[in-house]
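Friendly challenge for the regulars: who can give me the structure tokens for this chain first? No prize, just bragging rights.
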Amino acid sequence: MSGVGEGLGKVEVKLRWDPSPYGEAPRHLDIMAATYSADDPYGRPVYVVHTESRSPDGTINMSRHSETGMGFGFVEAMVLEFERMSPAYGRVVVGVAIHQDGGPRTFGEISNAGVVVVEGYRELLADDFAQVAGATAATVAEFGRDTSGRWGFREMVRGFDADPVLFAAEMGTRQR
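First reply, four minutes later:
Bragging rights claimed.
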């Protein structure tokens, strides 16, 4: 995990994609965050934030949501406030899932898809999902606490073949 100085504070994950071609079902992508306890950072998530929801303590929330993409840049955003997160949580994994309405879709079929992770003006990650083109969901980032309690970031672009519900349960598993 890498961090700077006192660790991460407020981080934003932003997602973009173009709308579906005329006459096709809308393409709908969602940012998801799974939070794990400090005692069991690879166990079951304590909670998952997605689609206009927020964490119980308000430290992770969706600030923008789109169900169709708009072609106008980043149309979905999630804010994570690590400086306010309880010490009971030790790990957060963020990913993106494609809703499978209208038939199976992969990232390779989603035009102009991309994700960025930023802290203020500092870009931590920018990705276009090309390395997971055959996947229906993908993790993009892992945040974890070090022994002094500071939050750090690790790029974690990893593809999954799962619908959003199954992905939420699997996204924080150890890499195979």
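Residues 164-170 form the longest helix (7 residues). Residues 117 and 124 are 5 Å apart (CA to CA). Your move, everyone else.
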